[in-house]
Design a protein that fits this description.
It is built from ten helices and 16 strands. With 412 residues, it is of the alpha/beta class. The strands form four sheets. Strands 1-2-4-3-5-16-6-15 form an eight-stranded mixed beta sheet. A four-stranded antiparallel beta sheet has the order 10-12-8-13, covered by helices on one side. Strands 7-14 form a two-stranded antiparallel sheet. The longest helix is centred in the C-terminal third of the chain and has 22 residues. It is elongated and about 85 Å long. Bound molecules: zinc ion (ZN) (2 copies).
């Protein structure tokens, strides 16, 4: 009987999702025209708040996250249930839009090139759908619109100052990114790590400047830095456990003066980004880099400064919720449309602030139209979000919220 009831509720959610589709496309296009950067997004805040205030049963709390964040809270009509958090990031990027769309960005040099306009819209859509079936569920759903994701901010303030995980305390959290490598209409969910732990490093080798004709009288920092650079693959392959996913990429190297060919310079500096699924792995990579740099510099008689910064944690999907989320999304999209991605992804997402505190699942929602083999990637000036996926994504989030509140997502 209960299962039958739930089926009927899901059918109603799918119907509502279809009905609100034109409205969702309109909202997404409006957000797309006013992309804003960082934490202060006044126009984005205005559009999202305005839309949320139209939804029955939603309490809207504005100006959160130390800027333009919004937290909207909805309570279900039944007596009890869990508390679920659904999060959208809402900021844009300093990129000039290349496409000639009729809803093209009106802010020069600024573009929703990561599709966060779509993320905000599908969470607004989920709120609309869950409002329509409010009598069918109990508990509480918090719809969180977070600025600052691209600059690694927002989540910490929402959690630390705005206490978004408390009152009532959040049992589980969910988020998604529009994903160019996943086909539209499908959702991929990482088996374990949806995003990696992100770090940066910098190695500065200090030698002794001198005439390039008598290198023996100098200490060549370029030679030493080059050797340290060459040892990076060995650090990863020989010092870090083989089963740990990790990346260390040098993105710049600087030394000398292009106009001076007869002087060996004083210093050579290089740096880049490093990623791993576990914070401990990243810490170990930093330590090993430091040791290697010191050892090489000793041979050369140079000295070095190594700086390693680790920013936040990884986004690890809860093993307890994985199947429940997959099944909930599949009820809306179809069972063959939702699948598990076995490999880890090492991109960065500050959803880690939530997922390190409460059980969470992060999904990759397909945005690549079926007829296309490849589309421009995230952060490309040619990036294009697929409007056709908005209703399905809103429905999937609504189903996750509904089953989550009812305590139906956890593994039994
Ligand atoms: Zn991005
Ligand atoms: Zn993004």
């Amino acid at each position: 009987m209960e299962a039958l009831e739930q089926k009927a509720v899901i059918e109603r959610m799918k119907k509502t999702a279809k009905e609100i589709e034109p409205e969702l496309v309109r909202i997404r296009h409006e957000l797309h025209q006013y992309p804003e950067l960082g934490i202060e997004l006044p126009k984005t805040h205005e559009i999202i708040s305005r839309e949320l205030k139209k939804i029955p049963g939603l309490e809207v709390y504005e100006h959160k996250a130390g800027g333009s964040g919004i937290v909207a809270v909805m309570k279900g009509g039944r007596s009890e249930g869990k508390t679920i958090l659904l999060r959208a990031d809402i900021d844009a990027l300093p990129i000039e839009e290349n496409l000639e769309l009729d809803y093209k960005s009106k802010n020069t040099g600024c573009m929703h090139a990561c599709g966060h306009d779509g993320h905000a819209t599908w969470i607004i859509g989920a709120a609309k759908i869950l409002s329509d079936i409010r009598e069918e569920w109990g508990g509480c759903i918090k719809f969180v619109f977070q600025p600052g994701e691209e600059v690694g901010k927002g989540a910490d303030t929402l959690i630390g100052e705005d206490k978004v995980l408390e009152n009532p305390s959040v049992d589980m959290a969910f988020a998604a990114h529009g994903w160019p490598s996943v086909e539209s209409g499908k959702i991929g969910i990482a088996r374990r790590y949806a995003f990696g732990c992100v770090g940066t490093f910098k190695v500065k080798v200090i030698g002794r400047k001198g005439h390039a004709s008598w290198p023996e009288q100098t200490i060549d920092p370029i030679a030493a830095a080059g050797e340290i650079y060459q040892h990076i693959p060995a650090i990863l392959a020989r010092k870090i456990r083989g089963t740990d996913s990790k990346i260390m990429s040098v993105t710049y190297m600087q030394a000398g003066d292009v106009n001076v060919r007869n002087i060996i310079p004083e210093t050579c500096e290089f740096g880049g980004t490093m990623r791993a699924t576990k914070r401990e792995t990243l810490e170990k990579m930093g330590e090993e880099l430091q040791k290697e740099a010191k050892a090489v510099c000793e041979v050369y008689g140079a000295s070095c400064e190594v700086d390693v910064q680790i920013h936040g944690g990884s986004v690890e999907n809860s093993q307890d919720l994985l199947d429940g989320v997959k099944n909930a999304a599949a009820e809306v999209l179809g069972s063959r449309q939702v699948y598990i991605i076995e490999e880890d992804n090492l991109g960065g997402e500050n959803f880690a602030e939530y997922s390190s505190r409460v059980p969470s699942v992060y999904m990759f929602i397909g945005i690549r139209p079926v007829e296309k083999e490849e589309i421009p990637g995230l952060h490309s000036p040619d990036y294009r979000f697929d409007d056709d996926v908005l209703a399905g994504a809103a429905g999937a989030f609504a189903a996750i919220g509904y089953y989550g509140c009812m305590g139906r997502l956890e593994r039994r």
